[in-house]
Write a structure and sequence with these properties.
The structure holds two protein chains of two kinds. By secondary structure, chain A is of the alpha+beta class. Chain A is built from five helices and seven strands, in the order E-H-E-H-H-E-E-E-H-H-E-E. Chain A has one domain. The model of chain A has no long low-confidence stretch (mean pLDDT about 85). A four-stranded antiparallel beta sheet of chain B has the order 1-2-4-3, with no helix packed on it. In chain B, about 15% of the residues lie in helices and about 30% in strands. The chains are: A alpha+beta, B alpha+beta. The interface between A and B is medium-sized, with 37 and 26 residues.
């Protein structure tokens, strides 16, 4: 008798977004300390009273965002959802796990729910980011240099968390594609078109 | 013999698009499975053109299998 395993994946291109999605789906995970610190710092930016307090909160938040890199995210995470604990392993820029077919009732739905919430939150984060950039542009003449700088730091921190994690995924994916194409006898040409990497592989 | 070719685009947020030419029949999906099977979740859902249903010996053809897959998320 054979046992069939079903693979489920979680996106991690933005770990903050993943954190939000897991919480929103009613789950918990063993988030590293830096994620807890970022949650607290973000809360402070929302509740800060007065310009100096807001500048200080923004600076702290930005510093933590900059410190968040793929290296600070654990290779293995445990997600508690639907009364079960799943261990995910980081692989090719995303977390994945396998669960026995037939035992995953409700679980796949919960993981899909996290993925959908992830996408929703990702759009939310991008909208917030764009709004902050717009606000900064519109109000830069009214804000003090220190306020402008602190907002710029937050924007850069948010952008860097997205870009650094994406870069990790792109590096892993491209390495694997190049190796597999070569192993299967394809001649590969690689070029950049804007931010995209385009492979043209030919086998005669 | 016709050249078999695969064009793969990796976006800066990790999404993968791919398109094959002149790889006939099921060999096309087999080839894609070997190369992208572990990177693309729903490879079987790739859009198949009429060329997919041609026998492997056929020489003419254009687009065989084309798909865009979101493997991660991010700014796009």
């Amino acid at each position: 008798m054979s046992t069939v395993y079903v693979q489920v994946n979680l996106p991690i291109t933005n770990v903050l977004c993943l954190d939000m999605a897991i919480q929103e789906a009613g789950g918990t995970w063993n988030a590293p300390e830096i994620i807890h610190e970022i949650r607290r710092a973000k809360m402070k930016t929302a509740t800060a009273q007065g310009a100096q307090s807001l500048i200080s909160a923004n600076n702290e938040y930005a510093e933590l965002l900059r410190a968040l890199s793929p290296e600070t995210i654990p290779r293995t995470i445990c997600v508690n959802i639907e009364g079960r604990t799943l261990t995910f392993i980081k692989n090719r820029g995303q977390y994945s796990t396998r669960t026995r077919n037939g035992t995953q009732s409700g679980l796949i739905g919960a993981i899909q729910s996290i993925s959908k919430l992830y996408d929703k939150n990702m759009r939310l984060i991008e909208n917030e980011l764009n709004k902050t950039i717009q606000t900064l542009e519109e109000q830069k003449d009214l804000l003090s240099a220190e306020q402008v700088q602190s907002l710029r730091s937050v924007i850069e921190g948010q952008q860097s968390t997205i870009q650094s994690a994406n870069q990790e995924r792109v590096d892993e994916v491209t390495k694997e594609i190049e190796e597999k194409l070569a192993a299967r006898g394809f001649e590969v040409r690689r070029r950049m078109v804007g931010k995209k990497i385009v492979y043209q592989a030919v086998r005669r | 013999m016709a050249e078999e070719s695969i064009r793969i685009i990796v976006h800066d947020d990790g999404r993968i698009e791919f398109e094959t030419h002149d790889i006939k029949g099921e060999a096309c999906m087999d080839e894609l499975e070997e190369i992208l099977g572990e990177l693309v979740d729903d490879l079987a859902e790739a859009t198949k053109t009429s060329e997919y249903h041609e026998p492997p010996s056929s020489q003419k053809g254009t687009n065989q299998s084309k798909n865009q897959q979101t493997t991660g998320s991010g700014s796009s």
